[in-house]
């Protein structure tokens, strides 16, 4: 799972020709449009758009379904009780709790919205790695320190995860087995504590080594690709499509 | 603990985004270039902790570490959590995009509050108690805030909000116990970390 974060990636030829920074803008716009819309027609149109984006990305069906299902389990927990909380036309009842049609529809709509946003993120982020994302955020005007923090974090996640596995393995070799006991929790506490102590030492060494090499707060990058007219045109087209789809929802707002 | 997109009402989302933005700007102001590697370590720790499942009763849970981060970093908790949450949302699909503000606020604000309360007391109470109070207090507050954001989003979520609050209590205890041991170890091995993060140079 952690490989999805750490592996360097490139955007495939088949994908829509939009650079990472504009992809981030598109993701935010599409997510906002989806969350704010209240009509089913709009949601279906958004689904059509997102499925098209997904088809253009390099994601396989298996990968996609696996990741969507993992998240859907979490969302199901959030929406499971809604049909029983919303008053309306009764649908069925379990143990004297009655589920209503209105509640069921509301839960379904939330599930739809969450999946649309997730699929958007997956489709548009495919081929964008964490370092590119950091760079894209700087280009969008996010604070340089924030992007730097993100790039360092990505680096440390890999290191910490490896270190965790090393420590965990050495515990296992000594016969440690996780149970519901104070001993287990103490061991995990010391494990995380040791992880932190070692990582702090490492962070200190890294920051000193970087200073020795003349690091002045930002990474130098050779690739500075200006956004072409074609890319801007595509971006504008997708953005207007999103706006247009969102407009179909306006009639359902009670203003 | 993650709330997905599409669940919360617009006013709650807007309030979350505004407060997270304010907290992050404040946090970034306090983040010197020297502190970036340390903040990044804790951000990575928060991220990795979410991938590690510990047994608790019949199921398994993952730790949040927001109490610990608040204790060590104070206001820096906001940018640190936001970075980890953005990475989770973008690459794993956990949580959502518009709801990032609320999710970050729910985790980072308790961290800052716990940090502000406990940092002045850190030399006067035993390490284990300090860790326990930080860990369980922050997770308890997070549970309350998650329930509150669900509750404020409409009557339909009141039952879910209740379940979230009660289900969170055992988690808060476990986090407290483990954070207690973490602080005990740090206090023995490298006590200078508790004085606040800075380089040895």
Uncertain runs of chain B with pLDDT below 50, 5 residues or more? none
Distance between the termini of chain B: 38 Å
Record the strand order, biggest sheet of chain A.
1-2
Structural class by helix and strand composition of chain B? mainly alpha
Find the biggest chain interface.
Answer: A-B, 83 and 77 residues
Going across the biggest sheet of chain B, name each strand in turn: 1-2
CATH top level assignment of chain B: Mainly Alpha
**What portion of residues of chain A belong to β-strands?**
under 5%
Q: Could you characterize the architecture of this molecule?
A:
By secondary structure, chain A is mainly α. Chain A has two domains: about 15-130 and about 225-250, no CATH class; about 135-210, no CATH class. Helix content of chain A is about 70%, strand content about 5%. A two-stranded antiparallel sheet of chain A has the order 1-2. In chain A, helix 7 (about 130-140) packs antiparallel against helix 8 and helix 8 (about 145-175) packs across helix 9. Chain B is mainly alpha-helical. Chain B has a single domain, classed as Arp2/3 complex 21 kDa subunit ARPC3, CATH 1.10.1760.20. Chain B is about 70% helix and about 5% strand. Chain B has helices at about 10-30, 35-50, 65-75, 75-90, 100-120, 125-150, 160-190, and strands at about 55, 60. Chain B has a two-stranded antiparallel ribbon. The radius of gyration of chain B is 16 Å and the shape is globular. Chain B starts with 9 loop residues before the first helix and ends in a 12-residue tail after the last helix. The model of chain B has no long low-confidence stretch (mean pLDDT about 90). Chains A and B meet through helix 2, helix 4, helix 5, helix 6 and helix 8 of A and helix 1, helix 2, strand 1, helix 4 and helix 7 of B. Chain A: It is found in: Cell membrane. Chain A: Belongs to the CbiQ family.
